[in-house]
Fold:
Amino acid sequence: MLERLESLRTDALQRVAAATNVDALRALEKEFLGKEGVISEVLAAIPTLPAEERRDTGRGANELKAALLEAIGVRKSELDEALVAALRDSGGFDPTLPPAAPERGGLHPVTQVRREVEAIFASMGYEVLDGPEVELDYYNFQALNVPFDHPSRELQDTFYCDDKHTVVMRTQTSPVQIRAMERLSPPFRVIAPGRVFRNEEQDATHEHTFHQVEGLVVGEDVQVGHLTWTLRRLLNELFGRELEVRLRPGYFPFVEPGFEFDVRCPFCEEGCRVCSNSTWIEFCGCGMVQPCVLEAGFEGRDDVDVGSLTGFAFGFGLDRLVMMRFGIDDIRNLMGGDLRFLEQFPC
Ligand code: PHE
Structure:
């Protein structure tokens, strides 16, 4: 067997050195080192050999394996180098060409519009805040003056995280209002964009996971006029022109007075799919912050004179803005994770 190994070695090394291309090398590798290759055969035969030959045969086979692997590697680099040299000499090779561009990911359309909104508010002196998506009932409801029997607490709307209902998936970004008041000293202006969750039937305009942008301004002498100016400014920036707006009374437990803020449909004059043929689009809920919400938010703060403060708050859906911006007609596309959809909105 040892002589067999010796002749295998001579034969294999000669043929590797003589190989003229990578395919030939691959074939040799398979022939000698493959699962059913010659060396495997030798190793498999060891138990049938006389006892005194077994050790040397095993060692010899393994040495041959290592020597062959190395020889194949060396020959492969030689062949690769020769290939590049040939290409270079043939004149069709331009070493100054940039490499193929790596495939790059892009920003999700919701991220694109969120950043646009953040930039607009930053230009008005707003700070951008974040808040937890898994939230205490206290912040999501109680501190926002949502009584225990309010319909938004019903199980069909809220994903509760525990049996006692003290932890919820936040149903709105409004809890960040309270968190902002706890942390900041008035006067301040903040927005808080983020994901919110509702236990809803899904259809083209409803998702269990969607996005809102909350706004909160607190200071002395903050008035409704500041609120409407701010929202108009936002819409002007987003749509590039002055759009008609209107305020209607609206009920949200944490604002008083509360409003629905509508904007004239930027896409039509007589009614279209986007505005459900009404020429108006419900843009957001808003209003003046309830005094009891200010009390809750600034509770225990010696540095804050709550009685001297007023504020406004608003909250709008980011997904609809994204859908309007990109002409998307089904909200389920946004969180669906289908790359064929997402790749249509490169940035
Ligand atoms: N959080 C409210 C909602 O989800 C919107 C809102 C925010 C209303 C702030 C008034 C003030 O519907």
The pocket of phenylalanine is lined by residues 172, 174, 252, 255, 285-287, 313-315 (CB under 6 Å).
